[in-house]
Structure formats: structure tokens, C-alpha cells
Amino acid sequence: MEKHYAVIGDPIAHSLSPEMHNAGYKALGIDAEYQRFHVVPSNLAETVEGLCALGFSGWNVTLPYKEKIISLLDNLTPEARRAGAVNTVKIHDGQRIGHNTDGAGFIRSVEGELNGFKGKKAVLLGAGGASKGIALALTEQGMIVHILNRSPEKAQALVQVIRAEGGTATSGDFAQGDWLEQVDLLVQTTSVGLLGEPFPFSLQGISEQALVVDIIFNPSQTAFLQDAKKQGCRTLNGLGMLLYQGVLAWEFWLGGQAPVEAMQLALKDQLLRRMFYKG
Ligand SMILES: NC(=O)c1ccc[n+]([C@@H]2O[C@H](COP(=O)([O-])OP(=O)(O)OC[C@H]3O[C@@H](n4cnc5c(N)ncnc54)[C@H](OP(=O)(O)O)[C@@H]3O)[C@@H](O)[C@H]2O)c1
């Protein structure tokens, strides 16, 4: 019997998840379809009821509903409870289970580039929803996390959440500083660069050993990543995080191993097509 999955959000046209998941079903010959649904805030509760009534097996949740959907679910996995946000819902024995694969997806995307996490220093730029999931996942792996945000009170609040979960974290000014010389992993999680704008400060003086990640994937090379390259650092954009949050959602829904290569190819193909049609 055909299984049905979806992604819900507002806006949603930019989401690459349908192409990524449908390519995966095709690669493994799985009888399933993944759709995207634009859901306005006043329709969120009815949408969840509708997806259940129509027999959907699960769905992804993107902005702005990752927190709002929680009150409409029956259970949360430990990952979703810790993050306080849900990006994946599974219907299991009629129960709506909320899960979060964003943090673990980030870990999967960088682990091949880092020689272990424990005791190493990560600096996170930004303290929004994405930063929270990544910071919790990194401290769970034993990293020491320093958070710099334009609004310092948000960075301080995130530090308190991490400490309450047993992690080690501090906060500081959203500016150049001594931290640049000691950082093992630098993660840019703000929305600066999405529209091609410059980053507010330079990375001059950064340790050449640092791995630098910008979780933005379109554009693929933000001014921030270009600066990191210029300083001699290894760099990654956010495509790996997007891929692996999808891979982990797939495995949560269907079990077994997701076809990572087919899903990655579909993502790259969609990005190229969208760039082509834009220009
Ligand atoms: N690769 C992936 O799979 C993936 C997944 C999720 C998100 N993302 C990307 O991550 C970015 C953030 O998403 P989010 O959900 O965390 O958003 P969010 O919750 O709205 O947080 C936005 C963050 O950006 C900061 N910021 C915004 N404009 C700024 C500016 N001009 N100067 C300095 N800081 C600024 C905010 O600082 P204040 O607190 O001071 O406002 C806040 O820390 C977006 O670009 C999104 O596309 C990628």
C-alpha cells in the first residue's frame, strides 16, 4: 500500500525535501509519495487532523511551526523534548510522535571532518532555533560551546538551557575576539548571507585548523565562507545538514538505511535547477 509523507510550513515553496525524499523512494523501489503543503497559521490544527484522517504515515515540520506543533502531538522523543522543537512527526499505532533530527543531522554532516568532538571548542554565531538544536547536539557530544549573538540576552538564555542539560557553554560579544585563535569548529547559524549580504566582521586571525561551517546552503558560498577559505580554513555549507536531517527522518519513519547518495544527488540537482531558472 502506498505510504504518504509531507512537509508543512509557511512559506514552503523553497523546500527541497519533496525532491530529496521522492528520489530516495525511487532508488529503493518504495511505494511512497512525499508532498509539500503550504499551511497558514490559522490552519495548523486542522492540517494535523487532516493529515491523520487521510492516513499520512508522517511529515516534516518547518518554519514557523517547529514549536507550535508540539501541543498537537501525543508524545515527544528525547531529542525533540531537549530541543523544544519538532521537525519530524511519525504516526505510530495511531499516536502522533514528535522527533527532532536537526541536531543529529548537523553532527552527521561534520563528523567526517572532525577528529572527534569530546573536549574540543565550538563557537556558534547566532542563538536562534537552528543554533539551539546544534548547540545541544554538540554539547551532548562533549564539545565546549561558546555562543555569540547580536542580541546577547538570547545567547545567555541558550547557555542556561545547555547547562540545565549538563553541557558546558559560555556566551560573548558578537564580534572578533581571542576565541578565533582557539576554535576547533566555527558554525555560522544566523540568517546573514541568505540575501548575499556581507558578514559583519572578519575572521582574520582564526586558527587554520578550524573547520568552518555556514548552515546556509543557498547561496552555496556566502561571504562568510569565502572569508574562512581566504584564511586557510576547511569549509562546509549547510547542504550536509539539510541532507542528514532528511536521512534521519527517513530512517525514523521507514527503518533501515536511507539511500544517502540518491537523496544527495536530488538535492544538488534541485539547487542547480533553481539557480538556472532564477537567473
Ligand atoms: N542547513 C539547514 O538544514 C538549515 C536548517 C535550519 C536553518 N537553516 C538556516 O539557518 C539560519 C537561521 O535559521 P533559524 O531558524 O535559527 O532562524 P531564527 O530562529 O530566526 O534565528 C536567526 C538568528 O540570526 C540572527 N540574525 C539575524 N539577522 C542578523 C543580523 N543582521 N546580524 C546579526 N545577527 C542576525 C538572529 O540574531 P538576534 O537574536 O539578535 O535577532 C538569530 O540569532 C537561516 O539562514 C536558515 O536558512 C539551515
From TrEMBL:
It comes from the Bacteria. Pfam families: SDH_C (PF18317), Shikimate_DH (PF01488), Shikimate_dh_N (PF08501). It is an enzyme of class 1 (oxidoreductase). GO terms for biological process: amino acid biosynthetic process; aromatic amino acid family biosynthetic process; chorismate biosynthetic process; shikimate metabolic process. NADP(+) binds at G126, A127, G128, G129, A130, I215, G238. Residues 7-89 form the Shikimate dehydrogenase substrate binding N-terminal domain. One of its GO terms (cellular component) is cytosol. The active site is at K66 (proton acceptor). Residues 238-264 form the SDH C-terminal domain. Residues 113-190 form the Quinate/shikimate 5-dehydrogenase/glutamyl-tRNA reductase domain. It catalyses: shikimate + NADP(+) = 3-dehydroshikimate + NADPH + H(+). Keywords: Amino-acid biosynthesis, Aromatic amino acid biosynthesis, NADP, Oxidoreductase. Shikimate binds at S15, L16, S17, T62, N87, D102, Q245. InterPro entries: Aminoacid_DH-like_N_sf, NAD(P)-bd_dom_sf, SDH_C, Shikimate_DH, Shikimate_DH-bd_N, Shikimate_DH_fam, Shikm_DH/Glu-tRNA_Rdtase. Belongs to the shikimate dehydrogenase family. This is Shikimate dehydrogenase (NADP(+)). It comes from Desulfosporosinus fructosivorans. The gene is aroE.
